[in-house]
Amino acid sequence: MPTNIIITTLKPEYAAALEQLQRASFPTLAESELMLERHFLKHAELFPEGNFVALCDAKVVGLGSGFLTNFDFDHPDHTFIDIIAGGYYTNHDPDGDWYYGADISVHPDYRKRGIGSMLYTARKGIVKQLNKKGIVAGGLIPDFAKHKGKLTVQAYVDKVVAGELHDSTLSFQMRRGFEVRGLLENYIADEASDNWSTLIVWDNPDYEA
Predict the structure, then answer these.
(1) Residue 198: which CATH number?
(2) Is residue 209 a part of any domain in this protein?
(3) In this model, does residue 3 exceed pLDDT 90?
């Protein structure tokens, strides 16, 4: 792990830099799906201890953000913009059983340095600290666009899960202990994922009912 990277909790003074991080990290994402400075200011107000920022020599280079919710696994279909309340995370419920992982992003210039793993570790830490059931998220499949027309989305995901294909996001999440529990259609306006997402879950092994 890089020694000059630190993980800290979200503070209002990081909000402007986090907007720029979003733009650099997700160049194919629709403008309406990006989180902006005003959104991060709200996250810092609602749940700062559950939103994490990676700093390299004081520069913002990564983000792991989310909120607590009571997720309905019997009715899992949802869109990204709806569940994150338009980016503001006002669906945050301090008594919710699950941490909804809305975003993990690392600046392109700082990837492959272990920052994503550090952010996932921070998320798991707060879930264990608060005794929540685990983490649920929409896992994007940004490499699906290269296979569209040759494979259905289900076939593509099945091959990624089986290790026959590599997806730069989903494969990474699976190595962090996440399981695919389904598909989410029209989850997000992202051409690389053809608007699809997987429903991914990490169960907290230390959860006590």
Answers:
(1) 3.40.630.30
(2) no
(3) no
